[in-house]
């Protein structure tokens, strides 16, 4: 029997760079930091080759963006009761929020267009 609490939970399928996946269930109030700690403390048996030294280097990527530590699942407006896919990577630092890469920061006046005749 499914309870209201089960329906309110957020189901995540985490994918490693290696392609291995594991499903986890979290509260909408859990932050990216909470998730990283939970995954580190409950490292799946099939992920031994990808073991990391600390939860502080685990990063979540959702829709192509790194989630900073204080972002909660509820803030992402993920559909409760459904499985959402995120990538989990080991990375020491995160890019600055709203950083669009080195290319966009160094704007130049040169054009990279070509004209086809």
TrEMBL record:
Residues 93-112 are annotated as: Disordered. It is found in: Cell membrane. This is Ubiquitin-like protein. The lineage of its organism: Eukaryota, Metazoa, Chordata, Craniata, Vertebrata. GO terms for cellular component: plasma membrane. The keyword Lipoprotein applies. Residues 10-88 form the Ubiquitin-like domain. Keywords: Cell membrane, Lipoprotein, Membrane, Methylation, Palmitate, Prenylation. Its main location: membrane. It is a lipid-anchor.
């Amino acid at each position: 029997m499914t309870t209201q609490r089960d329906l309110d939970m957020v189901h995540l399928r985490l994918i490693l760079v290696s392609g291995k996946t594991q499903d986890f269930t979290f509260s909408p109030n859990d932050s990216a930091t909470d998730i990283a700690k939970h995954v580190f403390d409950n490292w799946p048996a099939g992920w031994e080759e990808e073991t990391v030294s600390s939860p502080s280097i685990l990063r979540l990527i959702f829709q192509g963006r790194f989630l900073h530590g204080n972002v909660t699942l509820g803030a992402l407006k993920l559909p409760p009761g459904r499985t959402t896919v995120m990538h989990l990577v080991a990375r020491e630092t995160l890019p600055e929020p709203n950083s669009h890469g080195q290319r966009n920061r160094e704007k130049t006046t040169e054009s990279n267009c070509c004209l086809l005749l």
